[in-house]
Structure formats: C-alpha cells, structure tokens
Amino acid sequence: MQSRPKENEYAPYYSGYVGLVPDGDIVHILTEQVEETIQLLQGISEEQSLFRYASGKWSVKEVIGHVADTERIMAYRLLCIARGETVSLPGFDENPYVLNAFFDRLPIKEHIENLRAVRQSTTQLLKGLDSKAWARIGSANDVDVSVRALAYIIAGHERHHRRIVKDRYLL
User: Fold this and answer.
1) Number of neighbouring beta carbons within 10 Å of residue 159
2) I need a surface site. Which of 9, 25, 59, 82 has the fewest CB within 10 A?
C-alpha cells in the first residue's frame, strides 16, 4: 500500500485534489470510486446530460469527458515518470480540450464506458509498479511531481468533479 504523497511531491495547485482522497490503498480507492461515479452517472438522462448550470459552463457530458481526458494525461505522465523519463512533460489547457472534443455529440452511455475503460487502464498500470517506480519524481509542466502524487491527483480530480455534478447539476 502506498502512503500519501508529501506536499513537496506535487504543485500546490493540486493540494485540493490530494486532500479529497481518503487514506487507504490508492489502487483500491481508484477502483471503488469510479464505480460510485458511474452509478451516479447512470441515473442521468440524455436530456439531463446536456444541462449547463450557468452560461459558459460545461455540460455533464463535457465534465465526464474532461475527467477522462485529464486522467489519460495524468496517467501518461505517471507512466513516463515511473519509467524514468527525465524530460519535463507538457502541460495542457483543459478548455480547448473540451471545446475540440464535441463531447455532447456522444450518448452519455458512451462517456460512462469511456470513463470505466480509462480507469481500468490506470489501475492496471498502477498494479504493475514496484516501490521504486511509485517513489520516482519527474517533471510535468516544469513542476516536480511524483508517481504517487499523480495517482492521488487522478483520484482527487474525479472526486472533485463528482461533487460538482451532484451539487450543481443534479439538484
């Protein structure tokens, strides 16, 4: 079981996400929490999935797509750093990613299956890491980050957006 990352293992920006993750086995947490998120999303109709709680905000489908895209990016960073990459990995701007994805065109069921597949890929990657890989630190967007911290960021990011869906979209 991996311990929580220390504050010097990630940028201060991510502390809110890391703080949302309970103590315990991070691989188990990732596996369980995506099922909780999927259960929440399965109750959303196509009409509800296009809802935006304010002008300029993302639809539920766009939120789900954003969570999956971000996890892919964070898992790629995790893979690179775990394997010893020494070059700083690029940052990304979430807004053009969502804008250029046209997430609203796909049925919500497709988004749910995509999220499940992305998470399964992430957990399989994590299960194959040894203790040295978990502790490895690399650079993403010119900021140091550990493999362990990236796993917690993935979990916290999903938890953050699940809370937003519950609080702002499913009143």
Assistant:
1) 19
2) 25
